[in-house]
Design a protein that fits this description.
295 residues; alpha/beta; Aminopeptidase; OB fold (Dihydrolipoamide Acetyltransferase, E2P); 11-stranded mixed sheet; 14 strands; 22% helix; binds zinc ion
Length: 295
């Protein structure tokens, strides 16, 4: 099963933007958004004016076909080419990394399990990356991913997904989470995100953006800095049916462990990407605190 990589090169030099969809196979919105863009370009409705556009609608084809997050290994963790290829996804690593080695900017489109709307994952503070991220028109941001993972005892490469790998090669990179997997507007949020990215990088005619309307105002911006990763132990349950970005007060119960012990919020903050269905040892939810701007 091959990975489709559609590359468009304009005659004028410019940036290289890569857009990935379905790095997780059960997240369909990115693939739909990218297929829509390929159609629009191929029928001449959108023209690439400068630079190179690399589009990978389905980054994990076997997981996409099965409708699962991954087949044998989360492609968005421990992402680097490996000598010893034990799992199916290990054979995708060199293909994904090769595409990322050749990009200046990465936009990775995802969706998630809990109820909630779109937000953007940022990396360590980088003004150019933040300008790119804010141009996507989504007011909610989460950052501090690698640092939150680093606080655990796992090997540091665990937190290395597409964006971390691309940044290690000098690219600007953001993840756009388009909302819950089944949100009706998720594919459209992804599509708008790609067009705004192309507009920000001046790779398409600004008139192609007119149909999207004005950028939403930035006044309602919310920023959360991730502090910790919680993995689920067998028998542990959420204290409430958490939704993404639900606020929690310091000492408020977040979950109850199998032994009856309560897991309370270490500070005033937010629940990030809760996954009630996580299996034992799997990532269950993240906790973060509100900030004004990434720092
Ligand atoms: Zn994902």
């Amino acid at each position: 099963m091959a990975v489709k990589i559609a590359t468009y090169r304009a005659l004028a030099a410019g940036p290289t933007l890569t857009v990935l969809g379905a790095v997780h196979g059960n997240e369909r919105c990115g693939a739909q958004a990218i297929h829509r863009l390929i159609d629009e370009i191929d029928k001449g409705a959108i023209a690439l004016e400068r630079g190179t556009l690399q589009l990978v609608p389905v980054t994990n084809p076997k997981a996409y076909e099965k409708g699962v997050r991954f087949v044998e290994r989360n492609l968005n963790r421990f992402l680097f080419p490996k000598e010893d290829k034990k799992f199916y996804e290990d054979r995708l690593d060199p293909i994904v990394c090769d595409v990322l080695d050749r990009t200046g900017v990465l936009l990775d489109l995802h969706s998630y399990t809990s109820q909630g709307g779109a937000f953007i994952f940022l990396g360590p503070h980088n003004a150019e990356e933040f300008a790119f991220a804010t141009a996507l028109g989504i007011p909610d941001f989460v950052y501090g991913w690698s640092e939150a993972f680093g606080s655990g005892d796992k090997e540091s490469k665990e937190s290395q997904g597409t964006t971390e790998y691309a940044r290690s090669k000098g690219a600007l990179a953001v993840t756009l989470e388009c909302g819950n997997h089944l949100n009706a507007d998720a594919p459209d949020i992804g599509y708008r995100g790609i067009l705004r990215a192309l507009g920000h990088l001046e790779m398409i005619d600004p008139r192609s953006l007119a149909a999207l309307g004005a950028q939403p105002p930035t006044g309602g911006r919310r920023c959360v800095k991730m502090k910790s990763v919680y993995r689920r132990d067998a028998g542990a349950e959420f204290a409430k049916p958490w939704k993404h970005f639900d606020p929690v007060a310091k000492n408020e119960p977040m979950a109850k462990l199998a032994g009856g012990e309560t897991l309370s919020a270490p500070d005033d903050g937010f629940i990030v990407l809760p996954k009630a269905s996580a299996g034992p040892g799997e990532e269950w939810f993240f906790f973060g605190t509100g900030t004004t701007l990434p720092s």
